[in-house]
Amino acid sequence: MTVELVKLEKDIRDAFCNSDDLIIKKFNVNLGEAAICFIDGFVDKDILTRDVLSSLTGTTLSVPVYDCLKNMPFPETVDVSTEFDDVLAHVTKGDVVLLIDGAEGCFCFPLRKTVMRGITEPPTENVLRGPREGFIEDIKANTTLIRRKIKSEKLVITNMTVGKQTNTSVAICYIDGIADKTVISTVKERISNIKTDGILDSYYIEQYLCENKYSFFTQVGSTEKPDVVAAKLLEGRIAVIVDGSPSVLTVPFLLFEAMQDAYDYYSNDWRASLIRIFRVIGMLLTIFLPAAYVAFETFHFHLLPLKFLITLFNATNGIPFPPQIEILFVLLLFEILNQASIRMPRFLGISLSIVGAIVLGDTAVKAGLISSPAVLIIALSSIGIFCVPSQLNVISMLRLIFVCVAAILGLYGLIIATIMTVVYIVSINNYGTPFAAPFAPLVSSDLKDGLLKSLNVNQKTRPFSFPNHNRRRKS
Q1: For a designed S-S bond to 309, which of 59, 224, 304, 465 qualifies (C-beta 3.0 to 4.6 A apart)?
Q2: Closest CA to 331 of 436, 251, 406, 229
Q3: Which residues of the chain have pLDDT under 50?
Q4: What single DSSP character describes residue 41?
Q5: pLDDT at residue 356, as a whole number
Q6: Integer CA distances (angstroms), 187 to 13, 62, 160, 249, in order
Q7: 211 and 335 co-located in one domain
Q8: Would residue 10 count as lying in a domain?
Q9: What number of other Cβ atoms are within 10 A of residue 164's Cβ?
């Protein structure tokens, strides 16, 4: 493409619909008339003026412009674009494009001025011991954080662009020789086949990475901690980083990963095992406690101990609603309070939670609208849901479904619903990986990092639950 400056300038302005933030500044160089093109706000103007324009417009410039650009201290190499679409792509990404009348192609070089928040501890993955840094919304910073953890030439980062309008950068990370090539090619194929206008967060990519997009359970891991991603890469998984999102996706994903936490690997094995047991108990209480309360009080109250039954009867005497409606009403009340506290300003949200949980709950009990056992049951269930925060949405839906089933069919319906849920979980398979592994099917070697965690020094092999290579990590 031979540059005709006047025509190319007009074509670029037309392509950007004469947007006011498109800057095209003309000047003269030793080869003739030239211009720089960039988006206002993306470029560091101080470096542009001091290091670029002053050098290009110097009267003593006798070397070719391209040689001059190559000698400048850019963070990345200068690219020569000979296609108009490539020029537009560089401008939209935040690069500076140099147009020289009569030159063969346009010179594109990066002078992006990045504005980002600092690297801090993720708010949803706090640890008592271990690394406290977390991913941010910049893809370059996130890949650098992973490189700092895994200083190996085998760490591969493949860059892709997704989204017709957003042109979002996506990085696929894996360790060559450990990650399975079939899984790598599948991930790349699914991302390359995404045909949509925009990708604004990693969740947009997550939906395309699932084999069953309508599955009730999450089939893709997500974390904001670089050490967690590094550990998963070392096991043979693939990480997907999306520009503009602090959440990094990992595949393949196992259900029991939701019960694990980064702190488990920075504490004693007995302590980690005990914490995992508590997480499982908390999750089960969240799902089954409200449903069991409804089933026993509605259909199977004769199975309760007499003293407990008398206490329960005294507490619920005079309540105008049946147990099913009462539990659903309290569930609705707690969900509304939860959503309101999340979306309100932080300090007001804390006050609202206290007022809603204590004042409104106590007032409703004293007014005789709901019983104190119902408030206690839902409070325990709501606390337990945060034992496994990554599965909050799934657990909330299961809790509601089980309550409805128990209200209609009692304990028999609850047992049937549990069996159906377990069968469905066991049937899920993604990237050749059983979702319920290492328990269904049973992978005995992976039980060292299952419900009970063994010492790190005893985990000499990589997981057998999903495809990977070079299984032995210790000699």
Answers
A1: 304
A2: 406
A3: 59-61
A4: T
A5: 62
A6: 37, 50, 12, 11
A7: no
A8: yes
A9: 11
In angstroms, rounded to a whole number, what is the distance separating the alpha carbons of residues 433 and 438?
10
Q: Are 416 and 445 in contact (CB under 8 A)?
A: no
Domain match, 418 and 301 both:
yes
**Per the structure block, which two tokens stand in for 162?**
């997704």
Q: What is the predicted pLDDT for the residue at 61?
A: 47
Contacts 24+ apart (CB under 8 A), 201-208: 201/242, 201/244, 201/245, 201/247, 202/240, 202/241, 202/242, 202/245, 202/247, 202/248, 202/249, 203/245, 203/247, 204/242, 205/162, 205/170, 205/240, 205/242, 205/249, 206/249
Q: Terminal CA-to-CA distance of the chain, rounded, Å? A: 57
User: What's the residue count for the chain?
Assistant: 475
- pTM beyond 0.70, yes or no: yes
**Which residue pairs from 311-319 have beta carbons closer than 8 angstroms and sit at least 24 positions apart in sequence?**
312/373, 315/371, 315/372, 315/373, 316/371, 316/373, 318/368, 319/368, 319/369, 319/370, 319/371
Residue ending a domain, choose from 207, 222, 253:
253
Same domain, 57 and 183: no
Other residues' Cβ atoms within 10 Å of the Cβ of residue 104 = 11
Residue 280: HSE in the Cβ half-sphere, 13 Å Cα cutoff: 13
Question: What distance in Å separates the CA atoms of residue 79 and residue 214, rounded to the nearest whole number?
Answer: 43
Same domain, 276 and 402: yes
Residue 389 main-chain phi, psi, to 5 deg: -65, -25
122 in a structural domain: no
7 token code pair: 């025509």
The reply to whether 327 and 419 lie within a common domain is: yes
Asked if the structure places residue 303 within a domain, the reply is yes
Tell me the β-bridge partners of 439: 442
d(CA 264, CA 271): 8
Reduced to 3 states (helix: H, G, I; strand: E, B; else coil), residue 260 is coil
Tell me how far the alpha carbon of residue 342 is from its chain's centroid.
18
Q: Count the domains in the chain.
A: 3
Rounded to an integer, what is the distance from CA 388 to the centroid of its chain? 15
Domain assignment present for 83? yes
Last residue of one domain, picked from the residues 69, 90, 109:
109
Query: What tens digit of pLDDT does each residue of 403-429 get?
Result: 999 989 989 999 999 999 999 988 888
Q: From CA 414, how far away is CA 284, in angstroms rounded? A: 13
Question: Looking at residue 272, what is its pLDDT?
Answer: 85
pLDDT in tens, 342-351: 777 666 656 6
Preceding peptide of 438 cis, ω within 30°: yes
Write out the residue range of the structural domain in which residue 327 sits. Answer: 267-427
C-alpha to C-alpha distance for 336 and 327, rounded to whole angstroms: 14
C-beta of residue 44 within 8 angstroms of C-beta of residue 113: yes
285 shares a domain with 417 = yes
**Residue 448 one-letter amino acid:** K
